[in-house]
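Data card: per-record layout.
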Amino acid sequence: MVKQQNPWGGFASSQDTTIALQAMAKYAKAIYRKKGDSTITIRSKSGFAQAVHVDKDNSLTVQKVDLPEIPGEYSVSATGEGFVYLQSHLHFNALPEESEKGYFSFNVSTEPSHWTHASKKEFNIHVDVGYLGKRKNTNMALIIVTMVSGYVPDRESVNKLKKHPLVERTEILHENVTIYLKKISHETVSLEFSVEQEALVENLQPATAFVLDYYDPGM
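The structure for this 219-residue chain is written out next.
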């Protein structure tokens, strides 16, 4: 569970976050102690040291320590009594290796391809996705399609996507559609659902869509 949690405390989807937080809340209740406090000290070989004190008054508060040297070697020690949940997060930007480029083939189109929001009250969104990597297939994958302003997904057509053998489930959140695929192989998967106009919006801007590996969102 810790490995799947992101730096902001959530998980890959709203449903995953809800279930995980429920489990963590039950665990916290089981180990809760009214008395006792503890001090966590983070040290580096270069001499950096910072202590974090945890007691009943701040046990639910997230405390952060910025590490001054990256890369660096750090150690953590604890004194006192109680329970402390410790996470470390490293963020960096790096160009993908040549073999990682084009991890997915991904194409999103509308049907009809040419329309105006003043005359077209409903249209279809067609998604084609395939895997281009070296493995036989991916892990579970997510396709997220955001809506053009003024349009909402047709829930019945989104629910029908579940009939596809590779679709694990679908989710509509903030009018955006998320499709969970069990896996993606080198064979192209084609999916389609409808959207309908809810309000007339001027100066429409293009919407975005993307695909990512559930357990490796950076790909």
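Known properties of this structure: The chain has two helices and eleven strands. Residues 62 and 130 are 40 Å apart (CA to CA).

See the next section for split statistics.
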